[in-house]
Amino acid sequence: MSETDTQDDSQVPPLKDASTVMVVRDGDAGPEIFLQRRAVAMEFAAGMTVFAGGGVDPSDGVAEIAWAGPAPAWWAEKFAISESRAKALVCAAVRETFEECGVLLAGPTADTVVSDSARYREARGKLERRELSLATFLAEEDLVLRADLLRPWANWITPIIEPRRYDTYFFVAVLPSGQRADGATSEADEVRWHTPAAALDRWRAGADVLLPPTWTQLDLLTRFASTAEIFAADPVITPIMPVFTQIDGLDALDFPDNHRYLADLPDRTRLRGSSRPS
After folding, report:
1. CA angle, 26 then 277 then 120, to 5°
2. Residue 263 needs a FRET pair 20 to 30 A away by CA distance; which of 136, 191, 210, 246 works?
3. Dihedral of the CA atoms 25, 27, 30, 34 (nearest 10)?
């Protein structure tokens, strides 16, 4: 019996928009991706290995900000959503990437990017504590949001059976020259760069816990030989909402390529127990 057979609409937890950003760089063995292990003390997704990201804040996208790159209308078309939601998601992507790994996708002009994001460490902390909005930060520092440093990638929706649910839009961004991704956030216990293949090997060995959306993106990224190829990709974005069902007599998630995920799934990995959007 699937989750849709056991839960009516009145019982389904509401969705919250979220942005997840896959920060990539070129390495000796090919493209590498920045991953963080969620702090064990976190209220949800404790111990999960994820990309940078989180829920859209009410302040995201509501104020006028200096903007370079594809306009909200372009993002709205790519994600098949309204312009207002698209703007908020892009702003959340920039804010969360800065908060969670210190990578700032903004610059003094429309065609430059800050080379040393560490100089904004104080503002980063205020953003994470919600003492400062992204719009105010950018205005005070006279910075332009670089939407052109992001690309749309995927859309995953948390299963209806979970208590926390997100409508998560995935982005990809190449690490700007001169900047360094770090683990200076209260939300992560450990951070590292891995090739997608190495990250999947760690998962198969039981070293990391990957939820289906994270596994799927890493699996897709193994097909690219450089960050330039990743950034040039133009994936068709179709919303995916995994469904809990019976597979070979066991409760499991049904989603594209789930047979491959389940075949390599370490015993200790939890199929349920987290609603983290990435």
Report:
1. 60
2. 191
3. -40
d(CA 124, CA 126): 5
- Which CATH number is 3-264 given? 3.90.79.10
Q: Are 18 and 277 in contact (CB under 8 A)?
A: yes
Q: In the chain, where are the structural domains located?
A: 3-264
Tell me how far apart the alpha carbons of residues 75 and 56 are, in angstroms, rounded to a whole number.
15
**pTM value > 0.85:** yes
pLDDT, tens only, 59-97 = 998 888 999 999 999 999 999 999 999 999 999 999 999
Residue type, 231: F
Collapsed DSSP state (helix, strand, coil) of residue 137: helix
75 CB-near residues (< 8 Å, 6+ apart): 83, 86, 87, 89, 90, 147, 152
